[in-house]
UniProtKB/TrEMBL annotation:
<dbReference type="GO" id="GO:0003677">
    <property type="term" value="F:DNA binding"/>
</dbReference>
<protein>
    <submittedName>
        <fullName>Addiction module antidote protein, HigA family</fullName>
    </submittedName>
</protein>
<dbReference type="InterPro" id="IPR001387">
    <property type="entry name" value="Cro/C1-type_HTH"/>
</dbReference>
<dbReference type="Pfam" id="PF01381">
    <property type="entry name" value="HTH_3"/>
</dbReference>
<keyword id="KW-0238">DNA-binding</keyword>
<dbReference type="InterPro" id="IPR013430">
    <property type="entry name" value="Toxin_antidote_HigA"/>
</dbReference>
<feature type="domain" description="HTH cro/C1-type">
    <location>
        <begin position="21"/>
        <end position="66"/>
    </location>
</feature>
<dbReference type="InterPro" id="IPR010982">
    <property type="entry name" value="Lambda_DNA-bd_dom_sf"/>
</dbReference>
Amino acid sequence: MTSMHNPAHPGLVLREYLGDLSVTTVAERLGVTRAALSRILNGHAGISSEMAVLLGEALGTSAEMWAIMQARYDLWQAKQKPHRKIDTFPELLHAA
């Protein structure tokens, strides 16, 4: 099993992809508000499935790339928070 180490927020990666394009220009082309795009770029909002599809089409990437990046980021964040101990289901450990 591989270990994830503090993955970057997908908005930071998106910022790199966009280079010198303005937030306003990108938001207009994607058909989203400038505020919504800014929240993603600044790491204050995640990339939804719908946004992943738009980004895939606009940037020539796959929608899955953005969705997986967001899922990995969210999972890593969730694992950093304290949670109660959960007992395993021994009866399910040998089922296959």
